[in-house]
Structure prediction request, 636 residues.
Amino acid sequence: MKIIPIALRNISRKRVRSAITIGSMAFAGFIMLFFAALGQGMLYTMEQNAVGVYLGDIQIHAPGYRSDPDLYTRVPDPAALVDKLEKAGFHAAPRLYGFGLAAASGNSSGIWMRGVDLIREPKVTLLDRQVMEGAWLSADKPKEVVIGKKLAYTLGVKPGGEIVVVSQAADGAMANDIYHVRGILKSVGDAVDQGGFLMVDAEFRRLMGVAEGTHEIAVARVDKDRILAEAADTVASLAPGMEVKTWRDLQPVLAKMIDVMDISLLFMLFIAYSAVGMVILNATLMNVFERIREFGVMKAIGVTPPQVFSLIMAEAVLEAVIANVLALGAGIPVVRYFEVHGIDLSNFSSGASLAGLALDPVWYCKLNTKALTMPVWFMFAVVLAAVIYPAMKAALLKPLDAMHHQ
Amino acid sequence: MDIPIIVLENVTKVYHQGKIDVTAIDGFSVTVNKGDFTALCGPSGSGKTTILNIIGALDVPTAGRVTLEGNDLAALSRTALSSMRRDRIGFVFQAYNLIPVLTAYENAEFVLALQGKPEKERRARVMEMLQEVGLEGLENRRPEELSGGQQQRVAIARAMVTQPAVILADEPTANLDSATAAALLTIMEHLNTVHGITFLFSTHDQRVMDRARRIITLRDGKLAGDERKG
Prediction:
């Protein structure tokens, strides 16, 4: 039996009803595509905020540093380790950390100093692109620093402003100097916002008297499709004796949150499509009831129950195909637009953070494979589920009863 | 030599309508031979359509035995009955019952496609049959674009094209005017003569009875007469 041509003609037979059914499915598909892309965009942004802006995919520390971030607990010979990591398909950036006190304009605040490798850090994170005012660090201007947004507010400084820093150097002597604000970061996370004091790594070493070693090496996968856990194993094998953690280990709350959001997206899709499923069920049942005589005749002349079942299923699947084409045709350009422009919710959620990391108040869509395929598969699954009952009903009709149906 | 193709032995059919049992067929026995051109006559409610439905495996008797080409229908599975209807029986219904979304050609071809016949063979047989029933040039019309007589011819072509053992026609001329009915009967006679296909049709149309070579009469579900002409 030519199921597909007959199914297509049956769809075109009741044009208005088919249009309403397909339209409902397409509209739901469009909304779901947008919703899925927005959800993926949020997850991507959160992960990017965690990984791309701040953490890196993987971090290497000397044992004990994370529980007690001491100036003296350092990864030895970072240059050699970075070199090995780069040869193994990673970007790696050594970082130096220290604590101190900053004062400006009669205000003071504790600071978290960070010595940045200006060549390697941009390969691992996007921190250099988070400057809200002024400019990023420059190797030529070691006395100019970039600070966190809230720290700038606390100290009452703007780019060009002067800050006095006091700390204790590695040799126990007092470390102090005057720096000028070169740039102020936008919100990237509580710790950086409130105490972030970024300087060129060489200047950090000079100020704090740290000649060798580094406190942290942030690592990023060159190939982002490389499985994180496997990448961490590789890194661990290259850094024996060191503590190697993925961003998911470092930010478990955030990782869990992202996982939960990912699953909740599925639930949202299921709920929305359930409503669509009812529309499809209703339309298909009406369709079957109207054609009971026809199914009776078909069965009388030799069409088997599985063929009747397949015909109704084929009609529903074809409607779903058309609906998906329409949904993708309308949805992809819209999603693409919001990938670039985003939805600005800064009036409602400016400064919000999650697990210590800033949430971007501008929501961008992200059209990845998951956002694209999840609504499509969901629609097919719901359509098939909704059509099983009417299709079974038609398949199991007794031909004689069906032909006498009024 | 007569070859029995349909044998009904003491067939009874009782319908249960609420608490009332209605006996539609009551101990009916008959044998239809290969090549018969038989009319099943009787007033409305005499059980003609029920007999055709039972022979066509669309309904099951309450009691009695029905065999088609030696196969006991009661012993066949639902799938086997579907195959039997598809391959060995051709149906012509009073209300034509064509599939509305298919053209005349596709309706006639439908059962051949179900049988899995190759495209080339299907085309040759359908075109030949449409020609025989006088529907050349109307192949691409859908049922709604055909007159009642033309639709009934498509139904006959659909029933004939598989070269079944028997064609069961339920009041095939009931909805047709005299000229169309006569033309249709001529076609059926021709197909019966040329192809040797057995025809069994229910009717209370005198024009049909006049053309039938055997008339089986039913009254109140019982055999009231069995007359062979010539």
Observations:
- Chain B touches chain A through 25 residues (CB under 8 Å).
- The mean pLDDT of chain B is 90.
